[in-house]
Amino acid sequence: MHQTWIKRVIGLSGDRIALAHGHVFLNRTELPWKDLGAAHEENHKGVWVPVERYEEILPGNIHHDILKISQDGELDNVAPFTVPTDHLFVMDDNQDNSAESRDRLRPH
């Protein structure tokens, strides 16, 4: 089965990225979040789970809704790094159910 995934670009080549408690820091500046309250989301097993909804504001006043299932998940804290030449750093709107670029930062 073919699946298409849509991600949002957070960092370009040369950008400095870090995550602390799920909050993104782009070039040492925290991207602002706005709390949108509690909701429910269907997980990959078809089970509805409680989530927290936030609006993240990227440079250029670009707004994205993001979901958090848990606080301080496995990929919520990433040490600062520089996006390599000819690469992008991307994230999914469902941060706790998608590893995207952060997964490549972990040793395999």
Structure description:
The protein is built from 1 helix and 9 strands; from the N terminus they run βββββββββα. The chain is mainly beta and 108 residues long. It has one domain (8-103). The radius of gyration is 14 Å and the shape is globular. The protein starts with 7 loop residues before the first strand and ends in a 5-residue tail after the last helix.
Key words describing this protein structure:
globular, three-stranded antiparallel beta sheet, mainly beta, 108 residues
Q: Helicity, in percent?
A: under 10%
Regions with little confidence, pLDDT below 50 for 5+ residues: none
Main sheet attributes: strand count, strand direction, barrel closure: 4 strands, antiparallel
Q: What is the CA-based Rg, rounded?
A: 14 Å
Structural class: mainly beta
Average pLDDT taken over every residue: 81
Give the CA-based shape.
Answer: globular
What fraction strand? over 45%
Number of strands: 9
**First CA to last CA: what distance?**
26 Å
Spatial strand arrangement across the major sheet = 4-3-2-8
Tally of helical segments = 1
Give the H and E element order: EEEEEEEEEH
User: What is the domain tally?
Assistant: 1
Summarize the structure.
It contains one helix and nine strands; from the N terminus they run βββββββββα. The protein has one helix at residues 100-103, and strands spanning 8-11, 16-20, 23-26, 29-30, 33-42, 48-58, 62-68, 78-82, 89-91.
Give the helices and strands, then pairings:
Blueprint: E1 8-11, E2 16-20, E3 23-26, E4 29-30, E5 33-42, E6 48-58, E7 62-68, E8 78-82, E9 89-91, H1 100-103
Antiparallel strand pairs: 1-9, 2-3, 2-8, 3-4, 5-6, 6-7
